[in-house]
Specification:
The structure is a homodimer of 316-residue chains. With 316 residues, chain A is an all-alpha fold. Chain A has 20 helices and no strands. In chain A, helix 16 packs antiparallel against helix 17 and helix 19 runs antiparallel to helix 20. Chains A and B meet through helix 8, helix 9, helix 10 and helix 12 of A and helix 8, helix 9, helix 10 and helix 12 of B.
């Protein structure tokens, strides 16, 4: 469900690098040329381009891009040029360093990725930052937020379909009991969200709805200003309905006054090769406007062009 | 520092399987033959033997061994025949299922392994038990023990040598402050043990000793009957001095009245190809008796013979 458009016949990495080199040459930068190349190459192709560039010109393409580009466009191209594990490590490091209780990036990286992808990000974290992700999360976050986030980033969830129905019932009851008492930070409560497989959690949430008449996320909205509850809702949505979660992040990023470029960029680069097509459909269903059009209205210049390229607009 | 003795010219896996088949044939079992083969093959060789056996005879060698052997000898050979990740998953599952506050197996598996080995065990756990290790640990353990164990089994520690000295000082101070207040289950206290790299922890513990005059593990012995403190001491020992930790487990398993075969077996099979030689040296230093002699005195029959084979006694 990738939105990316890759040309039928892709130039060799050497040719791509030569064109990129031209785009950087002389006065000014040819941003259009950069978009026409990087905006239409898959992760494996971008990886080879980076390697080829380093071998051919003795420079790190990422550093050159940072030097040549600016602002939101720079960040977008930089994140896009990273491979997904490095990018997740980078985003997680940023989120841990400037952590605030409203930050959801750590939840996205731990719950809207496969178990192996989360591991790959933790491995990349070691290489990039000479420490572990959980170490930074433990050190930078606090209180109940830490309790939840530390378990989430350390999880390696089982990914099979097997469901223990009697366990799902027991845990649905426990979830309801704790929610009724507003015991949201209880260890027994948190551990269910932090360790169960998606299939098992989904079964518990279904039973919750059948038995108690409401989506669990509705009940987790009892106090809309409670940031911990918001984090729990993000956890369930990232695990069970990531496309709805991300459609909402985009809606909030471009809706209303101003644009939250950080969130918009993150959703587009991290989901373009995963499920951005479905996120777009979900967005349109909810907002009655195609995602591309909404983004085009809210952004401009090369930043807009690159976003639309990643959304699959125009020719490859 | 493996104690294992492998013959100069190792028979082919097909030959080994044929010999094993002979050992199982007819009335009775030729235990000596089994020991002479499996007791002198490395992990990679045992793996090929299992695969070859399944291919040649259409049976799982493990199941045949279970059928043919009994008691402590059966468990020893069974655990030895498993590959290390499966074995750790098996031991961790057993420990979670019949968990008690005095059980240290989960600490061993999470702290006396490399980060990649712990991951491999978590992966094997998915395959064998259709759920995650942390899920079972969260479900089966309780209270403060769960708080610590859940983080330990989920950790993926950084393994580089880099140390942040000023952080080590800050955290040594925090450790001392919490210990002075007996706040052993404080989240800030636990997270240091659960997330820091060995090098970083070691630096903090060294500073602790320099500044406050005592080994941290001495201070963690304030209340010898407190099982949570014992778990914390096991954590630091498994991380920093695993050979001392295991030498002590063996000493307690064979010292005094009776033998704790479960602990003795576990140490020998999990460490034979890692550091059993050093554990033996450590044992002898502390007890003035060679480990082989102490084990021979305390055990008997095929169980004894297989243990001594794994300790490198006799010819391969």
């Amino acid at each position: 469900m990738s939105t990316l458009k890759v040309p039928q016949s892709v130039p060799s990495a050497a040719d791509d690098c030569e064109q990129l080199r031209k785009a950087f040459a002389g006065w000014g930068t040819n941003e259009g040329l950069i978009i026409s190349i990087l905006g239409h190459r898959r992760a494996d192709q971008r990886k080879i381009i980076r390697e080829t560039y380093a071998k051919t010109y003795g420079e790190d393409l990422l550093k050159v891009l940072d030097k040549e580009l600016t602002s939101d466009f720079e960040r977008l191209v930089h994140l896009w040029a990273l491979d997904s594990a490095e990018r997740d490590a980078f985003l997680a490091n940023e989120a841990a360093k400037k952590w605030s209780s409203s930050n959801r990036v750590l939840v996205e990286i731990s719950c809207a990725r496969s178990s192996e992808q989360l591991l790959a990000a933790r491995r990349a974290y070691h290489v990039l930052y000479k420490k572990s992700l959980e170490e930074d999360v433990a050190h930078r976050t606090t209180g109940d937020f830490r309790k939840l986030l530390l378990l989430l980033v350390s999880s390696y969830r089982y990914e099979g379909d097997e469901v223990d129905l009697s366990l799902a019932k027991t845990e649905a009851k426990l979830l309801h009991e704790k929610i009724s008492k507003k015991a949201y930070t209880d260890d027994d409560f948190i551990k269910i969200f932090a360790t169960r497989s998606r299939a098992q959690l989904n079964a518990a949430f279904n039973h919750y709805k059948d038995e108690f008449g409401k989506d669990i996320n509705k009940d987790l909205k009892a106090d809309p200003k409670n940031e911990f509850l918001a984090l729990l809702r993000a956890t369930t949505k990232c695990l069970i309905h990531p496309e709805k979660y991300f459609a909402k992040v985009v809606r909030l990023a471009i809706g209303g006054q101003g644009t939250n470029e950080e969130n918009l960029t993150r959703v587009v680069v991290t989901r373009a090769e995963v499920d951005l097509k479905i996120i777009g459909e979900e967005y349109q269903r909810r907002n009655s406007v195609p995602l591309e059009r909404a983004i085009a209205k809210d952004t401009s210049g090369d930043y807009e062009k690159m976003l639309l390229a990643l959304l699959g607009q125009g020719d490859a």
